[in-house]
Amino acid sequence: MNKVIIRYGVIISIVLIAYFLISKLIGLHQYPVFSAVNAVIFGFGILMAMKNFKSNQSEFKYQNGFQVGFFTGVFATIIFTAFMAVYVYMIDKEFSGAILDSYGLDYNKGSLIMLITLAIMGISTSLVLTLSFMQLLKESWNTNQKQ
């Protein structure tokens, strides 16, 4: 289970980082609306991790599938948030201010609030997507009785 979580968590975070850097090259990294693509990247990675785990199990239990999906997303979130912390504090110190200005907030716009928001959004996205995908992947309790 841990190998699947680590492998797919790293893959998701690499794709997220690559997407961010490509959008920076194009000049679209300061528009929060494009972060919706992050949910698609998370979704695809979590679904692939859960399918891979299910294919290697003789008996697929709901709680194990849920753990794989959720912890894969959380692991990817931790890596991506760490990358963004390095980016915000070391590379582009004005980035977080530009992002938070687009929200029209009237209080201190520090980088930490953006990182906390990023982590909360990643974890909540992982939770919602995992619960949704488990509905597709779980074993049915319905019997095959003909009426």
What can be said about this structure in brief?
The chain has 147 residues and is mainly alpha-helical.
Description of the molecule:
- It is a single chain.
- This protein has 147 residues and is an all-alpha fold.
- It has one domain.
- It contains 5 helices and no strands.
- It has helices at 2-26, 36-55, 62-91, 95-101, 111-137.
- Helix 1 (2-26) packs parallel to helix 3, helix 2 (36-55) runs antiparallel to helix 3 (62-91) and helix 2 (36-55) packs across helix 5 (111-137).
- It is elongated.
- This is DUF4199 domain-containing protein.
- InterPro entries: DUF4199.
- Keywords: Membrane, Transmembrane, Transmembrane helix.
- The chain crosses the membrane at residues 5-22, 28-47, 68-91, 111-137.
Topology:
Layout: H1 2-26, H2 36-55, H3 62-91, H4 95-101, H5 111-137
Keywords: Membrane, Transmembrane, Transmembrane helix
InterPro entries: DUF4199
Organism: Patiriisocius hiemis
Any low-confidence stretches, pLDDT <50, length ≥5?
none
Number of domains: 1
Structural class: mainly alpha
Average of per-residue pLDDT values: 81
Shape: elongated
Report the total helices: 5
Order of helices and strands: HHHHH
Largest sheet: none
The tally of strands reads 0
End-to-end distance:
40 Å
Q: Proportion of β residues? A: under 5%
